[in-house]
Design brief:
The chain is of the alpha+beta class. It is 22% helix and 30% strand. The chain has two helices and twelve strands, in the order H-E-E-E-E-E-E-E-E-E-E-E-E-H. The strands form four sheets. The chain has a four-stranded antiparallel β-sheet, with no helix packed on it. It is rod-shaped.
């Protein structure tokens, strides 16, 4: 008779071996710092509401603080409330990333613009850091779109009062008597009347002498 040796392995030890291999693989591939997946880059405090006029822009500063144990390169990204993009007619200027050291705080300049056709109203804009290994917690800021400013009022011009002037007269045409002007025709009439009075008076005087 030919004897044969058969080795039979039960399923339970096989499962144990596979489980050990699965658990050992992450350790063999290297140990990662779990803290990089924490939200260690935080933005600002309470973001105050801002206003922007149609065709204009608004600029404000936003701080980013690194509370982790490694350096982060982080800028900012924007979106509308719960949307992938910004509200209609609203845009934000790109914000270049800055290297934030451990425990450091940097300041980002945020500029939000509204087109001339941006609908009036109040919106919510969400802002987050864009570091690679940070959960990018979104912060919200209330944005009001207002009408464009009214045109400037022109400066009032100084009103010049006209100076009343009389019509100039030629010399010799009029003579002034006691502050009022007498025309030559009136003077001629006066002279005739005075002459007549003198002649009549002289005649009366001569006749009186004869008598």
């Amino acid at each position: 008779m030919r004897s044969s040796l058969r080795i039979t392995l039960s399923p339970a030890p096989l499962l144990s071996i596979l489980l050990l291999l699965v658990l050992a693989c992450p350790a063999a591939s290297g140990i990662e710092d779990a803290s990089i997946y924490e939200d260690y880059v935080t933005l600002g405090g309470d973001l105050q509401p801002v206003e922007v006029r149609q065709g204009g822009s608004v600029t404000f500063l936003l701080s980013a603080t690194n509370a982790g144990n490694m350096y982060y390169d982080s800028g900012l990204k924007f979106r509308g409330s719960g949307m992938s993009g910004m509200p209609e007619g609203i845009t934000a200027d790109p914000v270049e990333p800055q290297t934030i050291g451990i425990g450091e705080t940097v300041w980002h300049q945020v500029t939000i613009r509204a087109s001339v056709a941006a609908p009036l109203g109040m919106y919510v804009v969400e802002i987050a850091d864009n570091s690679d290994k940070d959960p990018n917690t979104w912060r919200t800021v209330s944005l009001s779109v207002l009408p464009p400013p009214p045109p400037p009022t022109p400066a009032p011009t100084e009103k010049v009062e006209p100076i009343a002037r009389g019509i100039p007269t030629r010399p010799g045409k009029e003579a002034k008597t006691d502050g009022f002007a007498v025309s030559p025709r009136v003077l001629f009439v006066i002279a005739i009347v005075l002459s007549a009075v003198i002649v009549i008076g002289a005649a009366i005087f001569i006749n009186y002498k004869k008598n």
